[in-house]
Amino acid sequence: MDNGVSAGSTASTSTLGHIALGLTLLAFGIGHTGVIDGVSAANSVSLATYVGGIALFVLGILAFRAGDGFDGTAFAGLGAFWFTWAAGADGKVSADAAGTFLLLFVLLGVTLTVGAASGLFGQGVYGLFTLSLLLLAIGAFADSGVLGKAAGWVAAVAGLLAWYGATAALAHWPTAVGRGRAANRSAVPAS
Predict the structure, then answer these.
(1) What is the total count of domains within the chain?
(2) Which residues are CB-contacts of 91 (< 8 A; sequence separation ≥ 6)?
(3) pTM above 0.85, yes or no
């Protein structure tokens, strides 16, 4: 590839990554809540594989290439999570193995929550994502559908927050961190 050709700006990579994360979390969360009759978490496997897994991983590589270590880590790590979750979503693993897998990715979520520098839209998204994984892990170990539904609601809220932050950045909407264009640059989690 020609060194003069840009792989995309950090802002565009970050915005697209947070839209992908938001949509995946929404589908995953809504599936776990059972709020829509006949829609389960298993129905989000294709979205989790391609949008949450492959697209986020590629966006993570592009963020690394652009020098954005935080988004690179977040998107590549979350891409690995979603792809692996989708691969095991058909029940090939025991509940304890699924709980252990979720707990391992809780560690990534904690790292992203602590490392996010953009307040509500960074720490909020990653903190809620981490909480949803923790609730799912405990639910898997305890065989509790109630915890799974609670985790779904938390994941859906995290998805809405990620989607809103990215949409606000694109639309130049005011955000909780301030008004106007300058504030919207920080609306999407970045390093």
Answers:
(1) 1
(2) none
(3) no
